[in-house]
């Protein structure tokens, strides 16, 4: 409760006076301090994003919703509103990078969400081809005897027709499964998707990509989860697969903890800090 009260008081009253005092002392607005002080990466871009979202100025608030093609114009508009000279190339370059990252993150989420919303359709030839490709990747030395077969259980599906397992994650689950292993893979797709949706992936992506995050970066993070969950599972030594949900949540909490670090970059090699 007190945390909510403090956030309300800070955002409604104290923040304005703190910004005013810092501008008086430094001669720079909040954006200038952020873009001129912090190193490139999540800490800077998250600070810029929060500053723009919290602004009372409509031009600044709208900047977090700008499309990639309009970033250059948006940078000029922000500099004009804040009375920052256009020849300040450092501010201009850094704001451009941050706006690209913010715009790219939003676009990436929409692309992932749109793919998730596409239901698996057994009448769609492309969907069926991807499903057979998955079988061939995981079971290269065993022929699939029929499209509906108990053999699917051998790679982790719950029944003889995999399409029923894609109801939650749609085609996104199948696309990611090209890199992984059925139900565990779909659970990790849901984990990656939820972290993207709630903004937890921002620090990782803003540190890793100095521009527009793309779908390939989402898939790379998914691959990281698959690799790390495999290690995590064997390190924890669960009594049986029946405890999967318990350990999935434990792993989820571990990943969320890592993503709280402003300097985090999660890759298949290791958790690296720039």
Structure description:
63% of the residues lie in helices and 1% in strands. The chain has 274 residues and is an all-alpha fold. A two-stranded antiparallel sheet has the order 1-2. The protein is elongated.
Walk me through the topology.
Elements: H1 2-26, H2 30-37, H3 42-54, H4 58-62, H5 71-81, H6 89-116, H7 125-138, H8 170-177, H9 182-197, H10 202-208, H11 215-236, H12 244-259, E1 265-266, E2 271-272
Antiparallel strand pairs: 1-2
Helix pairs in contact: 2-3, 3-6, 3-10, 5-6, 6-8, 7-8, 8-9, 9-11
Compose a concise summary of this entry:
The protein is mostly helical and 274 residues long. The chain has helices at 2-26, 30-37, 42-54, 58-62, 71-81, 89-116, 125-138, 170-177, 182-197, 202-208, 215-236, 244-259, and strands at 265-266, 271-272.
Strand order in the sheet with the most strands: 1-2
List low-confidence stretches.
Answer: none
- The portion of residues assigned to helices is 55-70%
Look at the structure and give the mean pLDDT: 88
Globally, the shape reads elongated
SSE order, one letter for each helix or strand? HHHHHHHHHHHHEE
- Describe the main β-sheet briefly: 2 strands, antiparallel
Count of helical segments? 12
Termini gap? 36 Å
Strand content: under 5%
Supply Rg: 23 Å
Total number of beta strands = 2
Class from secondary-structure proportions = mainly alpha
